[in-house]
């Protein structure tokens, strides 16, 4: 797969996700409610849709119905968006901008943002419950999403992130923070793809290892970009980690060390895909693009 | 069914719910996370468990397995508890007390309370996804819960409630507010009970009408108690509605009018149960107890 073919494929997954999100918003987030309008403002405001693309590409790799899996992909993006809205609130990171636009509570109000995010997490589970896949697939998908998103997954990561604003994290704690905060939903991406395709465990295990590794690559590169990129390119302020005296992969390992570490986790991701042969080419390209991204 | 038999039954439903909540907390809200400890603080802090009792009694009425339905009952209480925690936050009602104890964000912190509630809503859907019932029952239960809790249900009610802090509500708007804010989860109670029992629609329709009516009774009596009861009896400040210049059933209809209205909705609830005969006796007693409650 050359780079053009990869980009075409990526864009087609994003397009499918965006279309499905619109359809599902009309069904579950009707515009007469302000909280629905606020949810749409944040949800439909762009983004890389990495998690959705993982759902769709894992599903396709496992021979599943990509169109049906788009409901799971959309649900995961809804859940991710809810976590960003709550993360931006004044009592959390107090971020005024997200993706180059005012964050939800700045555009609307704090109470509206709170409830808009609540509406998104609820809609995510409603979308899964009503997806055009078998009931067995849907309950397993809901369980996987809840596990990744809950107090043993992403939310625990958000707690750790808040905690380590005021406490110095060591290397192990930083890894645990990111495995929970970002990694758990990246992992849920391939899990939802596998549930959509009802994939056998010989496919699931390599895909899950791959997801765990690229989840770390993603975060390490985030930390690097906070030092090396520009506010314009990222659509959010750079240098905020240093300003907040946050422990990051860069503060622990310097730029070169962090870059080497990202490379190492990328290698581990690729090694996991080895047994899957050519059909994992898209995921290989995707790992690379996460490693060398500049925004 | 005499009053003692009713109370015994009610207590047995509450006991089953509390036991199941403890088991499920150990599984889904492990105590090493502070957000889990905060979630347990609010979740296991008592309450009437009206919604859980509706799940269990509807399930039993429809001939289902009450023990299996306890997972749905627990999930609904988790979801209700999350809504209370977010409702108490400074950007919402800014309430310092709940059930006679400091509210979650007063006992912990605002960020911990935010995430604790998020953990509860997520756990609610995880509990349903993994409940010991058929996959068909579980996806329908998840869909019903999400529909009642989301932007077309409870969350829209929370938005209306916030909106009408600053705007005068007329009678129709007040009804809509409460049908969404409180009514939607009361309705979800009987729906989850019916899903647990895989009840036929000839049972569902009377039970749903009953739930809609007692949901209003519940709220009207709440408004009455805010005027007539004591802070000690309620475990929360009385007179807060008047202080906040809130439109309530009492401000619209005076005490006598509100009392008559509660009676009228109670009568409608009982009328709906007519076709179900004796087996609905528990629900009849329950409606009465909601009507005459003093806390």
Automatic annotation (TrEMBL), chains A, B:
CDD domains: Trans_IPPS_HT. It comes from the Bacteria. The keyword Metal-binding applies. Pfam families: polyprenyl_synt. The keyword Transferase applies. SUPFAM superfamilies: Terpenoid synthases (SSF48576). Its cofactor is Mg(2+). Keywords: Isoprene biosynthesis, Magnesium, Metal-binding, Transferase. Belongs to the FPP/GGPP synthase family. This is Polyprenyl synthetase family protein. It comes from Gemmiger gallinarum.
């Amino acid at each position: 797969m050359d780079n053009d073919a990869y980009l075409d494929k990526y864009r087609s997954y994003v397009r499918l996700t965006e279309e499905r999100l619109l359809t599902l918003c009309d069904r579950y987030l009707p515009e007469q409610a302000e909280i629905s309008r606020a949810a749409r403002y944040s949800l439909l405001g762009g983004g890389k849709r990495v998690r959705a693309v993982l759902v769709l590409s894992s599903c396709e790799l496992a021979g599943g119905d990509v169109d049906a899996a788009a409901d799971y992909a959309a649900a995961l993006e809804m859940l991710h968006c809810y976590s960003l809205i709550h993360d931006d609130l004044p009592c959390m990171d107090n971020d005024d901008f997200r993706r180059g636009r005012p964050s939800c509570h700045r555009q609307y109000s704090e109470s509206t943002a709170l409830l808009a995010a609540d509406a998104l997490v609820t809609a995510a589970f409603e979308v899964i419950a009503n997806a055009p896949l078998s009931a067995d697939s849907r309950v397993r998908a809901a369980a996987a999403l809840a596990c990744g998103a809950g107090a043993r997954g992403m939310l625990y990561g958000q707690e750790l992130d808040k905690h380590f604003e005021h406490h110095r994290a060591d290397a192990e704690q930083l890894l645990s923070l990111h495995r929970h905060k970002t990694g758990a939903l990246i992992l849920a991406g391939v899990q939802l793809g596998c549930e959509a395709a009802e994939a056998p465990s010989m496919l699931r295990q390599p895909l899950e290892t791959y997801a765990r590794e690229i989840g770390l690559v993603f975060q390490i590169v985030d930390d690097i970009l906070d030092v090396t990129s520009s506010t314009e390119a990222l659509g959010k302020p750079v240098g905020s980690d240093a300003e907040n005296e946050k422990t990051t992969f860069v503060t622990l390992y310097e730029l070169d060390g962090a870059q080497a570490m990202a490379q190492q986790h990328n290698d581990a991701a690729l090694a996991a895909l080895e047994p899957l042969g050519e059909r994992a080419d898209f995921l290989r390209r995707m790992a690379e693009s996460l490693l060398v991204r500049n925004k």
